[in-house]
Design brief:
Helices cover 51% and strands 20% of the residues. With 443 residues, the chain is an alpha+beta fold. The chain starts with a helix and ends with a strand.
Length: 443
């Protein structure tokens, strides 16, 4: 607007001068009027140019706006800061260089479970967990030297004695000469983060431990398999030379010598069976035992068992009874089923009476499965020992001396084989009357 006024005033002044000149030098009509108008126009144009060239004066409002903040403004800023400090969702406390708390916000009071009057004037070390006080002392001394504390992890202690991990960061406070006189400390509770990290660390540690255990299991398995195979070599030699000694060609032996040789042969056989049991347990544990399913006639299978076990029963004077009421053809592993029966029957043999011992083996259809059983009239299993029957190294009797011994793996192997064939195994027993083991195999 100022540039437009100057130009307009100048034009108006020029026109006024031209009109005045026309009025002076002419005898034409209205010359005097033209002179008067020209003088007025030139005067007006000059006034306009002069006014346009003047700078506007500052008004009072502008002067007030440009003034420096007043004491009232400083008080307002202090109130704002105080409200932010008190209402902060993060714990805050203000301490001096002696570690004395001179101020704290409501979140700090709430978290530590104290009244504010119980906090102000006390040492910040009163709120540090015992096991972390030394660390806090070092942090505090480093702050006084360097003026820096940022995300320092410290365990703090509440009024009720409970502790929690926190991150501390300090904003320094200086006097008007630039001297450090204290700090305003922000404290963040990191309990959730700490516990999350702890869970991750625990899982990682457990994973490492699990890997180590797997390695140990692998080494243990390799050791068992190696030792078992190596032990079978001398056992075969022992059994072979026992047979040679019993041969009449080696010379006539008396009854005592024959009994001794038989005892050596039987003991070697038991040791061989124990080694084989160890191998089978390791195969089951590592899921390396092989299973070959084939079609077998249940009745025919039960007759074959009778043929296998009858000689042993006659020798030990035990009555063997075989029952089968099914013509069903079962698809399963014949060899492994025979192994289950062998272990169950041998287990029964160990516990039936020396006289009038009786073992019954049976098979019958039951729903979608074939139910097999081995029943004896032995000593039975006590109530307190029932849960241990299928555990490694378990032996039923403590008072009744075992007549034939065993590896303690037989029933474990039975359970592993039956379950791998898709079945289940259990037993019923009554002390002093006998035990019946059942196992079902799906059709």
């Amino acid at each position: 607007m100022s540039s437009f006024g100057s130009v307009g005033g100048l034009l108006l002044g020029i026109l006024g001068l031209l009109a005045a000149a026309y009025g002076l030098g002419s005898t034409a009509p209205y010359a005097s009027q033209a002179f008067s108008v020209g003088v007025v126009g030139a005067t007006a144009g000059g006034i306009i140019v002069w006014l346009s060239s003047r700078k506007p004066a500052k008004n009072i409002l502008a002067q007030q706006y440009e003034n420096k903040p007043t004491k009232n403004d400083s008080a307002l800023e202090l109130v704002k800061y105080k409200n932010l400090y008190e209402g902060s969702p993060v714990m805050q406390r203000t301490v001096n260089t002696d570690g004395i708390i001179i101020e704290c916000n409501q979140m700090y009071v709430k978290n530590f479970g104290n009244e504010k009057s119980d906090i102000i004037g006390k040492s910040l070390f009163d709120h540090v967990a015992e096991h972390n006080k030394e660390s806090m002392q070092k942090t505090f001394e480093n702050w006084k030297k360097s003026g820096r504390v940022e995300n320092e992890e410290i365990w703090l202690k509440r009024k009720d004695g409970s502790t929690f991990p926190a991150l501390l960061s300090a904003n320094n406070i200086y006097d008007n000469k630039g001297k450090l006189i204290g700090s305003n400390t922000l404290i963040r509770d990191i309990s959730e983060t700490y516990h999350a990290h702890k869970i991750v660390d625990d899982h990682e540690r457990q994973k490492i431990q699990l890997d180590e255990l797997k390695k140990m299991d692998t080494l243990k398995e390799e050791f068992y398999m190696t030792v078992s195979k190596e032990c079978q070599i001398p056992i075969e030699a022992v059994k072979k030379y026992c047979d040679i000694l019993k041969d009449s060609a080696a010379g006539k032996l008396d009854s005592r010598q024959i009994d001794a040789i038989n005892e050596i042969h039987n003991s070697a056989g038991k040791l061989e069976q124990m080694i084989q049991d160890i191998i089978d347990v390791q195969k089951l544990n590592s899921k390396k035992m092989e299973f070959k399913k084939e079609l077998l006639q249940v009745d025919e299978f039960m007759r074959s068992l009778d043929d296998v076990f009858s000689p042993m029963m006659e020798e030990k004077k035990i009555e063997l009874v075989t029952h089968s009421s099914t013509k069903y053809a079962l698809k399963s592993d014949k060899g492994r089923l025979k192994q289950v029966f062998s272990n169950l029957v041998q287990n029964a043999v160990d516990f039936v009476p020396q006289e009038r011992g009786k073992i019954e083996i049976a098979a019958r259809e039951e729903g979608d499965s074939v139910l097999f059983s081995v029943k004896d009239n032995g000593i039975g299993i006590s109530e307190k020992r029932k849960e241990s029957v299928f555990k490694k190294f378990y032996q039923v009797d403590l008072s009744f001396k075992r007549k034939y011994g065993g590896s303690g793996f037989g029933l474990v192997i039975c359970k592993g084989i039956v379950e791998n064939l898709g079945g289940k195994i259990w037993f019923e027993t009554k002390e002093a009357e006998g035990t019946t083991f059942y196992f079902s195999i799906p059709k």
